[in-house]
Each structure stands twice: as structure tokens, then as C-alpha cells.
Amino acid sequence: MNTSGNLKTIPSDRALDDAHHLLHSALNAYRREQRNVRDSQASPQTCLEAVRDCLDAAACRGISLSVVVLGHWRTATTDMLGEGAERFLLGDVLTGGHGLTVLQREAHLLDTVDRDRLSGLSAKGATVKVVPGQATGVIVVGSELALVNSTRPGQSGAVRLLRDPDAVQALHQLTAVLHDVAADFDHWVASAALLDKDLMVEVLRMLCLGAKDETSARQMRVSVRSFRRHVAAIIKTLNVRSRFEAGLRIGQLAMASGLRPPGHLLDMPAEPGTD
């Protein structure tokens, strides 16, 4: 009886080695291809679609993602996501139930329009903070992907689309550290308004010097009652509980935004003979 149809061919050791080698080569090629895909230069439209896909995938899983924008708000979002970036972030991100955090750099360079936009984002549920340093555009979407604006002065736009877990995690940790040391945007706006007024800067200087109200009022040529009213206005505007906290808040906000804090006036001595 012919039983050849029931017999299984047993592969030789050489055939197994060849198959293993081919599989290993294929896996290496696939990894190289994936590595290139994970770190590639992309257009704003491609970046926008990649972020949208991440958000949609998260929504299908019933989870929300945190989107963090680091840099100058308008420049970073437009360069990396295109002209419809703000509408996308307000709609797909905030309205879609995801978190949005803006870490604004060089806040002292913001014009009135950008300040109003950021205030509007804050009012709609976004976390807006001010961080020190120059504006390098970065957008991190959860632990899924990151966008880095690698444009150099004098060159056309170049955005890196990163999917490598280690790279995304590193950028996520960077934004987390900056978030912890950043100043609240609404508080910064309040402090910027104070620092634009010479009278309030002088009041803050007197607070930093630790002079008595009577001495401060005399040097400013105002009544003690007026001086204390200015101090109360500063404390209320900065949303702090004491004069000491007001000085700390102003210093933090000024350094975070690149402004020079009123503390630089501390080298000005009080009038001779004052207590």
C-alpha cells in the first residue's frame, strides 16, 4: 500500500537554518522601515492627519489623550499643523474630550490678538502656562506621537513626525518638567499689566525692599492710605494672600516670560535716615 500521501516531509537542518536566516533578514528590513517611518519629515497636512488618527483611535478605545503644545502658540501650531490648526485643536481636541495644554514661550513678545486667543483657550478648558526660553515648536500627543519643528533660520519649514516610543517619552517628560515650573497664563497677564504701570512697579519695589508703609508712602509722595490701597490692588490682581507671596509671584512670572522683574531695582537704597 502506498502511504506516501500520509507521510510528512521532515525538513533538514540546513533548510531550517535557511528559513531562519530569511526570517531574520525580513524582520530586520521591517524594523529598519518602521524606524524610518517613525522618524520622518512630514508636511503640516500629514502631521494633522496623524494627530487626528491618534485622537480617533483613542476615542474608539474610550480613552482621552493629552495634547501638549510647546513654543509660540500661533507659530508652532501653524507651522506643524497648517492654517486650520487652531480650529482643529478647539474642535477635535477640546470638544472631543481630550486635554489641551499650551506651554507658551517668550510670552512678552505676544501681541494683543495672541493674548486674547490664549485667554479664550483658557476659558474653554485648555491649560495655558508661560515658560522661559526661546520658542522651539513641539507638539506631543499622549505617548503616541510627537511633532518637532526643526526649521532653521533662513530655511523652509521642516517638521519631524516621531512615533518611536523612546523619543516620544523623552519629549513627554520634557513638557512635564516645564509644566511644573511654568507660570499660569492668567496670572502672567495680570503681572504684565502691573509691570506696565510705573506706579505699581514702584509699589512692588517698596514691597521687595521690605520698607514700612509710612516710609514707602513718604518716598512715593503718596498718603499711607493710598499706598496700602495700591498694595491691596496688587494682592487682589495676582490672586495671592500676602505681600510676600506677591513678590514671589511677580518674580516667578517675570522670569518665566523673559521680563525683567522689579527686583532689579533693589540695589537702589532707601532714603538716608528712613526706617
TrEMBL record:
Q: Which InterPro entries match?
A: Sig_transdc_resp-reg_C-effctor, WH-like_DNA-bd_sf
Q: Which domain of life is it from?
A: Bacteria
State the name under which the record lists this protein: HTH luxR-type domain-containing protein
Species the sequence originates in = Streptomyces evansiae
